[in-house]
Amino acid sequence: MLNTVRTLFLTFLHAFQARATVQYPEEQPYLPSRYRGRIILSRDPDGMERCVACNLCAVACPVDCISLQKTEENGRWYPEFFRINFSRCIFCGFCEEACPTYAIQLTPDFEMSEYARPNLVYEKEDLLINGTGKYPDYSFYHVAGISIPGKDRGKAERERPPVDLHTLLP
Amino acid sequence: MSHLPLLAIFLIPAIILALATLLTWVERRLLGLWQDRHGPNRVGPGGLFQAVADGIKILFKQDWIPPFADKTVFVLAPSIGMMTVLLSFAAIPFTPLSGIAGTLNIGLLFILGMMGLGVYAVVLAGWASNSKYALLGGMRAAAQMISYEVFMGLSLLGVVMIAGSFNLHDIVTAQTHCWFILPQCLGFFIFLLAGIAETHRLPFDLPEGENELGAGFHTEYSGMKFGMFFIAEYAGIILISSLVTTLYLGGWLGPVLPAVVWFVLKTSGVVIFFILLRAALPRPRYDQLMALGWKILLPLSLLNVTATGTVLMLRAAG
Fold it and tell me: Predicted ipTM?
């Protein structure tokens, strides 16, 4: 009996507490920088496309929303087209994890509603941004070389010398 | 306005229905308030038109009668629910002058009778739906409402004894010096509990307990037929609240402000308390509800009748 009255009183006191609801369109929620939202394709520090059309993202995608076609230019691979169907995408981030060149990245933006489904299919020019995204200094071709007879690691054109792991020790 | 009965006959049910619709919004806003959220606040000023939007939506929903249902009774049940509640308002004195039936000399008995008939709405709905959840809900409703009607009637006897009348107008005027909530606090408490059970509101909403029975007696109902049950329930809350106001809180009596304002203020206070109960309390088990009724409230209300009678006899003698 007394418990009931106490419950009623405590519930009534909640009228004077702060609201837990975020009034979304007027009040924007805080999104962490690693929030998995709209997918972008980034460029390396030299302004070149990072994507090498390896198809790993399309393979990793559990809902098959990525489709791309490889093309070649001076021996380097590029995507001829790169298409993400955002009406299928579940924003799991597997494509970002699979990407060897940090080209495909998820951003903290989710406001991409459309009235028609076809408008949610983003082409390469919609996805490609001018910046480097989350990894400002990373360039795949500067670090990707391996040693072959007659060439050590880091000795090729536009290749950085390999990081000496021992100097990183504390 | 006893000289304008025709106007009152159309005006009062219209106002009650509008208020019952509005109450759906009020309840959702208040529940939000007590649960640290906002509730519907988008449509119109403060979300006020949410009730209108819901009404339009429910009007345009498919009005479907299941093929296995008993069609006549299925259609009849919600209208009985609505009718009995609206008829009850005929005897409620909102101001010294108003009320459809004016000063009905058996006003209280009339309302109790209408509430008794209101059980049929729920029971027939459960029966005509011809499905197990609806039947279980209807059965529970019958047991709950009939048993709580007993204590409701008994708890009112104290008030009737002090006022010496079944006329609600006389009962209010008898409270000029002292509201009946003071000498009849036990009766008030029992009447409030019985009133919640009678309108099958939370925490006593066992006939429609969502997590056990789907939606109880109105599981098979959709569209405006469901809407009628819904609105009848909210009109029932207003009815019980205005009865509490009339019987225990001095009805329209109050200083300075006009009579009808006092009546509305007191009634809305009770309505808000009803909603607070919903926000705060869990639903008891079915046997707990019955045990509370027959083992605690029935002896208490009998005790209340005896004590009130004794005091009145002693006062009359001495």
Answer: 0.76
